[in-house]
Write a structure and sequence with these properties.
The two termini are 43 Å apart. Strand 36 and strand 37 form a beta hairpin. The chain has 3 domains: 135 residues, Sandwich (Jelly Rolls); 95 residues, Beta Barrel (Elongation Factor Tu (Ef-tu), domain 3), CATH 2.40.30; 192 residues, YVTN repeat-like/Quinoprotein amine dehydrogenase (Methylamine Dehydrogenase, Chain H). With 543 residues, the protein is an all-beta fold.
Amino acid sequence: MKLPAMRYADGITKGGQVKFGGLNHNQGAGDGELWDMRNLTSDYAPLLATRSPRFKYKALDEPGGIFSWDGPAWVDGDGFFYNGERKGTVKPGKKTFAALGAYIVILPDKAWFNTVNGEFGSLEAEWTGNVLTFKDGKLFEEDAEANTIHAPGVNWADYFKPGDAVTISGCTKHPENNKTPIIREIDGDKLYFYEYVFKLDGKDADTPYTENGTLSIKRTVPDLRFICENENRLWGCDGNTIYASKLGDIFNWNVYDGVETDSFAVDTGSAGEFTGCISFLGYPVFFKEDHIYKVYGSMPSNFEVMGSATLGVADGSAGSLAIAGETLFYLSRAGIVAYSGGIPQPVGQAFGLERKKNAVAGSDGLKYFVSMQDENGGWGLHVYDTQTGMWNTEDETHATHFARWGGNLYLLSGEGDIWAVGRPQGIEPDAEGWEGSFSWKAEFGDFTEGSPNKKGVSKIQIRLELDEGAEVQVWLQFDTDGEWQKVSSALGEGAKRSYYLPIIPRRGDHYRMKLEGTGGCRVYSLVREFYAGSELKSKPGRQ
């Protein structure tokens, strides 16, 4: 009788990976997702690839910040620079910037720079003296009563302009003249206001009089923590108040004429201080840690502040506000979230249980670059790709500011270096400043091959492409024992090809793989050959 032949089987199974995910620092990371990484990018997704080299634009000695408005601007020490030229003097320290029309505003200095005529100055202006005369005068070429301030020898045009709201203080004979009226005209040493703004002497209050003592007239700007531009106004906030400048006027924040060009201010009733602001979807949006406020309307008479109790910007992370892929991202107390005008949605699950703080971010249009500090004080630069939904970690860069100009995204590092990041464009390949070869790492999560049984890996086949001078090394670790075992010597050929790497078999519940290298690399596929073992009935530690 002819017996059936036994089917030959060696028990070897293959597991392949041709699509690689991004960072997933969670215990449940799936095959192809990375528990840890360094200097990787999603530019070539679904390949596993290293990021592009950066370009060093400039090094600052005492970095204060960078900004872009028709050209690059930065603060180095006590100097404000625009297009590489020093334009004004500020106090050294970290700066916040905004722009309206031709003006760049620098806080907390309350300074401004005009990109058209090159002028630099202060948003505030103040005259101090010992003598002021209040009397009748002129207004629009007609006689007017109780509307004039006269200071012989003073050229008021050196301090103010018509339309400025100025705060008068120091009046003692008639304290009611300590107020904030609006200048209507300037005529040499005379300031003209609307009629009957001031109280004069005499029974009928129609006699000119002179105030003596310490007197001042000042145009003031609130002490704003955060600032943005929206619909031809600058908007800002301090601890609990939202402010808007006069329409098209960065200098005036106290003009209340009852017209549509007026300034605006409103207190909010919720607890806590504001933590950031930005213009988004045509509205100024203000954040506290647990509130978001949007200002609707087109003029002060119909401005309406609408608030919602939801995840706002974490304290210390105002710089994390950035728009990528038409979505606003920022760091909240619950991690990075995406905001489209409704309820913020968390997108930072890739970081697992790690808590981040002090985030600063920028965008190249589609990617969100964010530099954050971890619980131990270490810094990391991470990138979220809005097209793939993947997170990638680059390195330990501590960025203090981001700005875009010339089609590139730049960051200012804590050390004072201005780097073009992402995929720098329009820069000559042989230009001085390109980053040299850098190290990279890709550590995968646990491989269980879909089985709770013991298994052993016997071979690895990896298909990759290396740039000239680059190399990569493959490592394995079994059962999270902390010991990485080198699979082979470093791979260093530049051509796109496959490598077949034999491994001394070892049984275990799970294993991890790590790729480390220097220079540019793109991994196309990763195939593991493994054999299945028995169910997990052995004693702990037994192979």
